[in-house]
Amino acid sequence: MKAKIITLDNAAAGEIDLADEVFGVAVRKDIMSRMVNYQLAKRRAGTHKVKGRSEVNGSTAKIYRQKGTGRARHGDKKAPQFRGGGQVFGPHPRDHSHSMPKKVRALAMRSALSAKQADGKLIILDDATLDSPKTKVLKDKLAGLGWGNALFVGGPEVDGNMALAVRNIPGVDLLPTQGANVYDILRRDLLVLTKAAVEGLEARLK
C-alpha cells in the first residue's frame, strides 16, 4: 500500500510502499492485549514483601495457659490475629514475567502497526532530525502539525538534538527502531515512523 511522506515542516516529501504483511494484517486485539500484559508483567520489580509469623519480632511464649481462663486457645503473640503479628499469605519477592512465543509477539507488533494504519493514525516522516536541541522549536512544529500525543520511531540511532528536544514535551516519546514495542505504540494516539524506521520494522517483521 502507498503512504505519503511528510517533513516536520508539513511539506510533502514523496511516497513510500508499505508492506501489506506488516501494515495491512487483520487486527488481533486479543493478541495485542496479551502482549501488553506480557510487557507490563516483565517490567514489574516484584520486590513486595511482608513479614510472616516467623519473621516478626516478639516472644515465642504462650500468652496465657491453655485451660481455665474461659478465653480462646492461643499460642504466642506473633499470631496473625494479634496486632503486630505476622501476615498470612502475604506477598514475597518473585518474578512476575511469563513467556510468550516469538511468533505471537511478532503478530502483536504487526497488529499494532496495522491498527494505526487502519485508523489513519500512522504518519511517515522523511527524517526525525533537528538543527538544534531546542524544545520550543519542536513544540512549535508539533503544534503546527496538530500532534499533541505521538510516538516517534527513528532509525537504528535517534538524532541527538531530537532526543534532547522531545524529552521535555509531555505526551510525546522518541524511540529507535529496535525499541519500538506494542505497549508504547498503543498508549500514544499517533505513530510517527521515519523512512528508516519503516525499513527496519519491515525487515524485522516480514
Task: Note down, in words, how this protein is organized.
The chain is of the alpha/beta class. It folds into 2 domains: about 1-45 and about 95-205, 3-Layer(aba) Sandwich (Ribosomal Protein L4, Chain: A); about 50-90, no CATH class. It has 7 helices and 6 strands; from the N terminus they run E-E-H-H-H-E-H-E-H-E-H-E-H. The protein has helices spanning about 20-25, 30-45, 100-120, 135-145, 160-165, 180-185, 195-205, and strands at about 1-5, 10-15, 120-125, 150-155, 170-175, 190-195. The chain has a 6-stranded mixed beta sheet. Helix 5 links the parallel strand 4 and strand 5. Helix 4 (about 135-145) crosses helix 5. It starts with a strand and ends with a helix.
